Prior knowledge:
Layout: H1 3-12, H2 18-53, H3 69-82, H4 88-118, H5 121-146, H6 160-163, H7 166-182, H8 184-198, E1 202-203, E2 209-210
Antiparallel strand pairs: 1-2
Helix pairs in contact: 2-4, 2-7, 3-4, 4-5, 5-8
Amino acid sequence: MTSGKVAEQVFEAPVPDPMLDLATMLAAVAGIGLAFQVGHFAEHAIQFAVWILGDYSNVCGRDTPWMSPWVTEIVRQAGTIMFPAADARRQMMMGMEVLHLIGNSIFLISLGCFYYCLRSKWVRWALYVEGFHLYEHLMLTLTAYFVGKPIGLSTLFGGADIVGSREFAVGYRVAWHFAMNLLPMPFAMIGLIEHMRRGADVRTRCGRSISIP
């Protein structure tokens, strides 16, 4: 084979599509983020179930939001590291709010990557719901830091314990966040199932298509 033919074959070799690489990376981020959300949702689901059972759960009463021991320890350590001069109550409050803000940011980013890959109206609805949920956690975190009390829809703007008992305040917030963690997940799953049934092309931002078998 002559050197000219070798050079011709080299130049004619297919060039890796950078958009395919980007799509693959974003799909991996979406998968990891959604797997994280499954664990996050499980924590909220058990918390809600424990509150419903109340004293029958043999864990805690309805006046205390349940958290798994390892999550409680992570919250405590995060609060101690971020606010070493604060008292234990403020450390736990801020640790919980900041970690929830981070966790919901991860979920929103994963949904954004998911939407980039699928361009599904269902995933877009999941983004809307989770975007609102993240906004709520941003407000809870900011008010907890500056006012000393989390204020938002999930706390009836700080008045849940005034409207009802401590049990009502805890139950309202637990149920609110359980619902908001649950709602985006069916939308995302419907979008994925719909896409798999279609076997459609995944559109990229440069207007080209990646064929998905």
